């Protein structure tokens, strides 16, 4: 066992951190002038857009971890560009297809951005034939992807899709309305097929990457609350010198580090473990991160006091990103239900309860 | 990054499992103080004979000089085998003796200590010196070639049957509080030294206290220089955190196995969301496991762990307490009626946020020394 980042992985994280700091959002007002094309070309130049494409020349068995290291840094600086959606979820899905697609190449090169359509409750990837969907993390995307029940990956243009109302100002959501009965497949074209096993692995990777976004946003929130506690003065002293504030911040540091440790395992498992174990690890990490994410986001508001609930203060960017991440691809309840049904099935009910159920 | 055992680690684990499968059944849970002492000693000696004591302690300190991850494997497997607790404090005592001891002291104590021939206890806390350890008042006043000891120590696990005590006491009552301290290596049979077991709220005697009344010990029992006590205690003690956490995790995992079995057999309460609660218990224990694996991998056996170790301690405490909340809730009234083991585990979980530096002290360390928040 050796749970350390390699020298190259540490360099990747450092590079991502530098780019993220330069394209990141420090004030909510900057969101209005954010130039996604410019940010994207910065990212493309560092090569991080192609990390989801298997490449024999680099460590192929660490794709998810590499994507996670970058996603973490971008979330830490509240970057609105769709790295999670495009370089993470969409690119990985296309890379898992049985045939090579032009779209995959343009995604990896940074010429095109795409994201994945989720079910209306955001709990899983959407199927083309089923109801309304939301393309999440869709700022400046050209294409959106979905799957079909029989394992085809489909793409369509994002142009013409309306913005969906949502809470998190650092990421754009697009609404897809279910079409009338006959025309549902109109506008979609097939990119290839993915096996059920690959799909399981993709789900594990996707969950791990959402965890990475949460770990980054949690770290951003922690950085923010600590630096504010050092400069904000009350009673003639920085509030960060008061034990009540110190202990609140210390608890958040514990949450962030534990979440990061779980993320590393989930990301490693997504590439290296059999699909079932990969998915179990990712679901477990997602359950854990979703729980602590809210605590960290809320503590950040609390340390800021009144200013923390104003639009001008960047605290809400992290809080909202964390709250939405917590439900993306299933919240803690969803993950725990999945884990519980795998572990216990219908067991654990007392005889009397079973009888009552059968009678009911 | 790799969470799997390397070939060497896998071999070490396989040999260890074989050893534990043969050995652990010879160690039933002790009931009396005398049995506890014998069990502890026999267990230590069995481990030592098989090469499992001082695994990660550098060879020059009497250990095997392996990477800390082997210590984690040892803790994990012993926990899984449900064998007795591993000998505690191995690392810091060996290090302290090796770094600060005279040739005579090393000769006299190191081998007996590593091999388990002699049992040691630790004399640090006092009734009025808990979190504020440096305010301790047990005195050792120089009198010719001897020290005369007076005072009281508390929370000294095993002191009621130990052979020796690693004692932190005040040799210069006039000096500033941190600089007036020294470490003495005390024979527990010295006249004027009296150890008494302390009964915990579980009813079990897991701790002891020690009284010193004009106890005379030779000046040669001092470790290091006069006034060097705080440095010795702090620099060597910090090595103790880490691998032992892996042992706790194995204990939690065994606990979860039992609860899972009881749940599947319908022996636990059933209410909406019960299985989800149990799934959550697995998740929080795994979070701790992954975190400890990461901490251990980052650890250099030659460098004492920094203030980040307090994050690990806080996480461990939080996990253990939440785990016991979930288990007692699922167990229901039986937890407080007839489940003696569960009651004991619950009581220990409350001690977790007190021993080794209270939770509040750990939070202050993280806030000031990890996050850099200002001191008052």
Verbal overview:
Chain A has helices spanning 7-23, 36-46, 63-76, 83-95, 102-109, 196-231, 243-272, 275-304, 315-327, 332-344, 351-359; strands at 114-119, 133-136, 143-147, 152-157, 162-163, 173-176, 189-193, 233-234, 237-238. Chain A is an alpha+beta fold. Chain A has a domain at 196-344: Butyryl-CoA Dehydrogenase, subunit A, domain 3 (Up-down Bundle). In chain A, the strands form 2 sheets. In chain A, strands 5-6-2-1-3-4-7 form a 7-stranded mixed beta sheet, covered by helices on one side. In chain A, strand 8 (233-234) and strand 9 form a beta hairpin. In chain A, helix 6 packs antiparallel against helix 7 (243-272), helix 6 (196-231) runs parallel beside helix 8 and helix 7 (243-272) packs antiparallel against helix 8 (275-304). The longest helix of chain A has 36 residues, at 196-231. In chain A, 52% of the residues are buried. Residues 350-360 of chain A have low confidence and may be disordered. Helices cover 48% and strands 14% of the residues of chain B. Chain B has 12 helices and 8 strands. In chain B, the strands form 2 sheets. Chain B has a 4-stranded mixed beta sheet. Chain B is globular, with a radius of gyration of 21 Å. In chain B, 43% of the residues are buried. At the A-B interface, helix 6, strand 9, helix 7, helix 8 and helix 10 of A face helix 7, helix 8, helix 9 and helix 12 of B.
